[in-house]
Specification:
α7 crosses α8. Helix content is about 35%, strand content about 15%. α4 links the parallel β6 and β7. It has about 290 residues and is of the alpha/beta class.
């Protein structure tokens, strides 16, 4: 008898403002493919569209994307639109603004506050939506995020955005933004191998009821190029559970608190099923200690 599939409800839920999501979502960064754009090898377009539809069928209701996730082949937002529109009720799509890329893939300077509306509207156009459920300000090099965050708060008040988040921040940025408008989610690099500098921020978010959504939690030092970072303790736990290293890393992420959300991304349908099944993997106190 075949083993029943484990869906995204197995890890429980969290509420982003007034939007309830399953704690295992989907990150769209690697969907466009394109080695020279830092996204790893390309996946077949039809297969990627199938993976997105399969993710939603398995209970994923939180998808993380950005207009700057594109390659010469395709864009993540266009793939999401093609696969999932018209969008199901309850599907939360989060986008990031701040960074931008020129057509060759080179990074542009961080957007000014007055340029953020154009970036939000570009995400809306590509996704075929009239509002974005969650928009992160992804900062780089700012001493204060207040002016940029204020520009996004105005777009929220105008109805283009429902909730606001922060990405790639230092701890002081959270307080700066909270003084302007509520923050429902924070996205920073965080994983078994890359976490110490953000442990305090994860705790602060939990204390304030803010979601913490790590990126690079599976790829680790491999980052955009894909794959799973090698770690002997992770490998030992995976072997003991008959699990994959990626599943152990996702389970570790979810163990950091009920407010931590996982957004592993893949263009491979088998890896998608494995990633979602990680929501049912429970690590013992001894196993978690070995990962410290």
């Amino acid at each position: 008898m075949p083993t029943p599939l484990i869906d995204a409800t197995s890890a429980g839920t969290w509420t982003l403002g007034d939007l309830t999501v399953n704690r295992i979502g989907f990150g769209a960064m690697r969907l466009p493919g394109g080695e020279n754009y830092g996204y790893g090898s390309a996946s077949d377009r039809d297969r990627v569209i199938g993976v997105l539809r399969q993710a939603v069928a398995l209970g994923v209701n939180h998808i993380d994307t950005a207009a700057f996730y594109f390659s010469p082949l395709r864009s993540a937002n266009e793939l999401i639109n093609r696969a999932l529109a018209p969008y199901a009720d309850g599907l939360v799509i989060a986008a990031k603004v701040g960074p931008g890329r020129d057509p060759s893939g080179d990074w542009l300077p961080l957007a000014r506050p007055d340029q953020l509306r154009g970036q939000v509207e570009e995400n809306l156009r590509q996704l075929g939506r009239d509002h974005l459920d969650l928009v992160y300000l992804r900062q780089h090099g700012l001493e204060s995020v207040a002016e940029h965050f204020g520009a996004l708060a105005e777009l929220r008040d105008a109805g283009l955005i429902r909730h606001l988040g922060l990405s790639n921040i230092r701890p002081q940025h959270l307080a700066q933004a909270q003084a302007v408008a509520p923050v429902v989610s924070v996205q920073n690099p965080y994983g078994v191998d890359t976490r110490r500098m953000h442990d305090g921020l994860v705790r602060t978010c939990g204390e304030q009821g803010i979601a913490f959504v790590p990126f690079f939690s599976v790829a680790g030092e491999g980052r955009e190029s894909g794959g799973v970072a090698r770690n002997d303790a992770v490998q030992a736990i995976a072997l003991a559970h008959g699990a994959t290293a990626a599943q152990v890393r996702i389970a570790w992420t979810l163990s950091r608190g009920p407010h931590t959300l996982a957004i592993p991304g893949t263009g491979n349908p088998d890896h998608l099923t494995e990633n979602i099944a990680a929501g049912a993997l429970r690590l013992s106190a001894e196993e978690l200690a070995s990962l410290e």
